[in-house]
Amino acid sequence: MDDSVNDPANDSVAGSGTDALADRVADAGAAPVPGRPGPGSPPGRPGPGSPPVRWATAAELSSAQLYGLLRLRTDVFVVEQACPYPELDGRDFEPGCRHGWIERDGRVLSTLRLLVEDTPDGSALLRIGRVVTAADARGRGLSAALLRSALARCGPAPVVLDAQAHLEGWYGRFGFARTGKTFLEDGIPHVPMRR
Q1: What pTM, to 2 d.p., does this model score?
Q2: Coiled-coil segments, which residues (predicted)?
Q3: Which of 103, 136, 148, 169 is most buried, judging by how many CB atoms fall within 10 Å of its CB?
Q4: Are residues 192 and 129 part of one domain?
Q5: What is the pLDDT of residues 135-160, one digit of tens each?
Q6: How confident is the model at residue 128 (pLDDT cuts 50, 70, 90)?
Q7: Quick one: pLDDT at residue 166?
Q8: Does one domain contain both 96 and 21?
């Protein structure tokens, strides 16, 4: 296991011509301590002794870690949700992409990814996506811990996501608000949201 995966010096989100934004994300500091998210945090906190949130680029992941992240996403987004659509979209290896995950005993329990995106007006924003927790690990606050960690890295930068419609209220507890109409993605209703 490469210890650089947990080194805060490796937490910068770079690439796609958004160095200033990447610097702000890198300067956001380390993730909150699991089980101690701080005042005003949304419910669903993991308990004491919960595994830490880890961050890495795809290139920094071991093949076993990358397989674990992609397998969990496929198990949930393709198999469990019965969506016969390709899960892999080519964005996992973008220079600005960071993968956050929580694992126990080498098994990935929850993951998300953080992307840097350019906008038509030349500004940049951050996109959170592929937020997922294994069926047998749900209800422990793992996705909440991941989302808090991602938002800490983002600092005040604008952040967007496309939430499955039934999770709109959950994301709202983290400061996200709907920005448009419900749309179908892979046959599942989603809503665009921004913080």
Answers
A1: 0.74
A2: none
A3: 148
A4: no
A5: 999 999 999 999 999 999 999 999 99
A6: very high
A7: 94
A8: yes
